[in-house]
């Protein structure tokens, strides 16, 4: 048993309370490798933004859970080396799907876990979430739960259709489970293809898809039911078209990849939405950079040369999200 406190990590409780009061949101960035983690920590340290490092099932399969945890521990020390005296870094399990997995993360030094039982019937979602909360709270680890179903594919979390969160359920759910934050479904979606062309209109000038707006009426109704309660948005990459275009112009094939417009995320960040998950955008930045370097310099074979540029692209992206979209700069 290792407490996250010994590792210099923090849970989300105070962070979220401040974010709701201050009208901003905390970035939750997924990490799978060293370059991504370096870029996240540099961006957070230089902007003095609290940050949530997320580990998904796909990341655990790719990079090994033990290694990722030690990398996060190293990230705290790296942040200090960068001059961030008291780093505000959360290590969070993304989409935990069982009590055993959540328990193993709590025991291993994670400061926050998500139990995603949203695909189960309502009462079973409550029972499993409550069990995780009761365990995690003994160690002051915070718990994110989910109500409603997001569409899209994120690692191994997939659903063809979304079901908006029912505002009439949230008080009962939050009260009976004791969860610390709630992921809701208001039209965000996992992956780089958040909407089908049928769900969108098409801009006649650019030929690009224009996505349907988020269901802010559902968000408002949830906030009315649970005033001041931390709300989480998953699947909130904006799929920057500059990267999509760069990838496509350099031999890639991402037709009609679109995300959530940043102005809608900015609007959400000013409300009780205090954690916004961004994953696909950094994948796109990484891929665009690698394609660019290898196209411009076909003779390059040193991975540090293209992964280094990918790291720079991701750092710039993370800073942009922190400063221009979530407003969390200067809050840590
Ligand atoms: Zn998610």
SSE series = HEHEHHEHEHEEEHEEEEHEHHEHH
How far apart are the first and last residues' alpha carbons, in Å? 28 Å
| Number of E-state strands | 13
Bound molecules: zinc ion
Number of helices: 12
Q: What strand order characterises the main sheet?
A: 1-2-3-4-5-8-12-13
Largest sheet: 8 strands, parallel, barrel
Descriptive notes:
- The longest helix is centred in the C-terminal third of the chain and has 24 residues, at 303-326.
- It contains twelve helices and 13 strands.
- The model has no long low-confidence stretch (mean pLDDT 95).
- By secondary structure, the protein is of the alpha/beta class.
List keywords for this structure.
332 residues; eight-stranded parallel β-barrel; binds zinc ion; alpha/beta
In short:
By secondary structure, the protein is α/β, with parallel strands linked by helices.
Helix-strand layout with pairing:
Elements: H1 13-22, E1 26-30, H2 34-47, E2 51-55, H3 57-63, H4 65-81, E3 89-96, H5 99-108, E4 112-115, H6 122-137, E5 142-147, E6 151-154, E7 157-159, H7 170-177, E8 181-184, E9 189-190, E10 201-202, E11 209-210, H8 216-225, E12 231-233, H9 241-249, H10 262-269, E13 273-278, H11 280-296, H12 303-326
Parallel strand pairs: 1-2, 1-13, 2-3, 3-4, 4-5, 5-8, 6-9, 8-12, 12-13
Antiparallel strand pairs: 6-7, 10-11
Bound molecules: zinc ion (ZN).
